[in-house]
Amino acid sequence: MPDAAQQAEGSSYRQILGVRFFTGTPREALAIGMRGGLVVVPAAPALVDLPTDPSYRAALTNADLAITDSGLMVLLWRWLTGEKITRVSGLEYLKLLLAEPSVREPGAALWIMPTAAARDQNVAWLRTQGFPTTADDCYLAPMYAEGELSDPALLEMIRTKRPRHIIVALGGGVQERLGLHLKRALDYRPGIHCIGAAIGFLSGEQVNIPAWADYFFLGWLFRSLSAPRKFFPRYWKARKLVGLMRKYRDRLPVGE
């Protein structure tokens, strides 16, 4: 028989757009992520690609934990169903993850970074926080093609180092596909945490998002104001989520 905690956890999910989202507390989400497996943090601009991107769709539907990072998705779900569900932001999840003593041990975490500049700034910040992280604990991701991807060099690095946690700091739509590739290819079960730009918010590599702004779902606004040409088109694309949510609600959108 499952204990009370397991029973509570089992009821803390909602099927939204065909994805099984965890709707418990941030600490409960982290407890699941610490067990290993693929953790995804889908944002609204990427969620709108569910109908047209089968590789991204496969990554979300095969994740071990999907958290409710998208404030727009949470608000739309409440508007459509009347149900208020908990939002767990990727930034909040990362902060809790970095507070875990086991993540601070030498060699415990491998970071996948988008650029050398991002790596250097993020590593410098991590070291100020007491992490023994060096450039050797990071992998610079190449430009991945669309569709299913593979990265033999990354797999070799992981198989050699065997980190307990792989923290993927790439863009939405790419990092989830990479995470699924790693989950399927590795012969052990590390935690694969697809947290996107969250580390950059802490290190200063990206615009700082205050805790109150994250709480009120305003991270998108801070990012857009910091680099309008880069982020406004991305978040304008997210408007398509309204139509998808109205049409499909809990069903997986395919071929929209």
| Percentage beta strand | 5-15%
- Percent of residues in helices: 40-55%
Secondary structure class reads alpha/beta
Name the helix and strand elements from N-terminus to C-terminus, one letter apiece.
HEEHEHHEHHEHEHEHEHHHHH
Distance between the termini: 42 Å
- Biggest beta-sheet profile: 8 strands, mixed
What does this structure look like?
With 256 residues, this protein is an alpha/beta fold. The chain has one domain (12-203). 46% of the residues lie in helices and 12% in strands. The chain has 14 helices and 8 strands. It has helices spanning 4-10, 26-33, 44-47, 54-61, 71-81, 90-98, 116-128, 152-161, 175-185, 198-203, 211-215, 219-226, 228-237, 240-248; strands at residues 13-16, 19-22, 37-40, 65-67, 109-113, 138-140, 165-168, 191-194. It has an 8-stranded mixed beta sheet with strand order 1-2-4-3-8-7-5-6, with helices on both faces. 39% of the residues are buried. The model is unreliable at 1-8 (pLDDT under 50).
